[in-house]
Design brief:
The structure is a single chain. The chain is α+β, with helices and mostly antiparallel strands. It is built from 4 helices and 7 strands. Strands 1, 2, 3, 4, 5, 6 and 7 form a 7-stranded antiparallel sheet that branches. The longest helix is centred in the C-terminal third of the chain and has 17 residues.
C-alpha cells in the first residue's frame, strides 16, 4: 500500500470512530448538579427518570435513551406547565439529565435545574442560565423525588469503599 493510501485509511478509520450523530446537547451540567449511581444501564436509567418525572406531572420534552439524556421545556415551577417565550426569574425552570457510564450495569445519573435571572438576546441562552438554588421550593421537591429514586435503584458502595 502506498503512503497516501495508508493516510486515507487512517483518516477513514478515525472518522468512523467519532460519532458526530449524537443528539446530546453540547453543554456540560452545572457543577452543582445532583448526581448518583443507579443499578441500570444508561438508557434504562434515563427512561426510568423520565417516567418518574411524568408521574410527578413534570413536563418532559425530549428523552433519548440511546444517547442517555433528557430535558424538559421551560416550565412554571408552581403550575408545572410549559411556558413559551423568554421568562426570567426562579419561577421558570428547565430540567436536564444525563446518564453516563459508571461500572458494568450501572449508570451515573446527573440532574440539573436551571433558571434565567435576566433576558439578553445578544447572548446564547445557556450563558444566561444559572443553577436553581437548592433552597428553592421546586429544587427541594425534585431532591425528594430523586432521593426516592435513589433509594429504590441507587447503588450504595460497600462500607469502607470510596
Amino acid at each position: 500500500m502506498t503512503r497516501a493510501r495508508l493516510v486515507l485509511v487512517a483518516v477513514a478509520l478515525g472518522a468512523a470512530a467519532c460519532d458526530p450523530g449524537t443528539t446530546r446537547p453540547d453543554l456540560l451540567p452545572f457543577p452543582e448538579a445532583r448526581s448518583f449511581e443507579v443499578t441500570r444501564d444508561r438508557g434504562a436509567a434515563i427512561g426510568l427518570l423520565a417516567d418518574r418525572l411524568r408521574a410527578d406531572t413534570i413536563p418532559v420534552g425530549r428523552v433519548d435513551t440511546l444517547d442517555a439524556w433528557l430535558e424538559t421545556p421551560w416550565f412554571d415551577a408552581g403550575t408545572r406547565r410549559p411556558v413559551r417565550g423568554d421568562h426570567v426569574g426562579m419561577q421558570f425552570v428547565k430540567l436536564r439529565a444525563w446518564a453516563d457510564p459508571a461500572r458494568p450495569t450501572h449508570a451515573e445519573l446527573i440532574v440539573e435545574l436551571a433558571y434565567r435571572p435576566v433576558a439578553d438576546p445578544s447572548l446564547p441562552g445557556r450563558m444566561l442560565e444559572r443553577p436553581l438554588p437548592e433552597t428553592h421550593y421546586f429544587a427541594r421537591h425534585l431532591d425528594s423525588l430523586l432521593n426516592r429514586l435513589q433509594a429504590e435503584v441507587g447503588f450504595e458502595p460497600p462500607a469502607g469503599a470510596r
